[in-house]
Amino acid sequence: MSIKVLILGAGYGTRLQRDIRADPTHAYSHLLGVPKALLPVGNYDALISSWLDVLTAAGIDSRSDLYIVTNAMNYDAFITWTKRHNIPADHICSDGTTANENRLGAIADIEYAIKYFKLDSDILIIAGDLLFYRNFKLSDMLIRFSSLSDNDCLTVTYTIPDEFTKRYGIALIDESLNNLITHFLEKPDPEETASREACPCFYLLKKNAVSLISEFLKESEKKGEALEQRDAPGKFLAWAINEGKCKFYAENINGRIDVGGLNSYVEALKYFE
């Protein structure tokens, strides 16, 4: 299977940086200015370094098939990381932004990277602040992905408590249809849906479906939508699924750690001790 991996590392981690500055213990002050994707965790020098093991175990060569999009402020830090892991420096690109106020947004960064690197294949998109539990096996997911039609896509879901629905994108899944996602809600109230299947930014897109990224952005631009309406990856997923643009199937996992603020980073540190 020919597949390229794109890690999103162009965010500015404003909430985490704010939490670190407000922490009365000052225990994490040394991490001020460090991009979330490059935060050390467990035995890994960076959060995204943990994905290198996952990719290798699945038969994906990070030296040839891994790409990362970041911003101008953090570009040099990612280049330093590539040198430690023998990843080509030209597999890192900057979207040119310099602050959270002029960020492109996750979906626009995906489009930018696809065009910049001229990616013309199936693509695995991974959020740079995302961690899965150790028992996750990408190889099993790739086997299922290869069995799907040329227009179908695959994502992961996991069960969350009722009160967390307002934090995540929620997928409505039909188990009788091979876990087809029939509808997608972005951060709904618990009363809006009976589903508790959260969907993080970990998408396997077939080559034929990659062009939907640009289509989504063009439609959003025509509507005059603000950045907040097209920033989060879940906005794209909701559009693609609810508008019938393509089929997304769910692969259930045990859970994830989303490094957003300091508390979730400390959680990640404890898990990977």
TrEMBL record:
SUPFAM superfamilies according to UniProt: Nucleotide-diphospho-sugar transferases
In terms of superkingdom, the source organism counts as: Eukaryota
- Give the signal peptide range: none
- What species does this protein belong to? Paraglomus brasilianum
Q: Which intervals hold domain Nucleotidyl transferase?
A: 5-270
Tell me what this protein is called.
Answer: 10149_t:CDS:1
Q: Which intervals of the chain form a coiled coil?
A: none
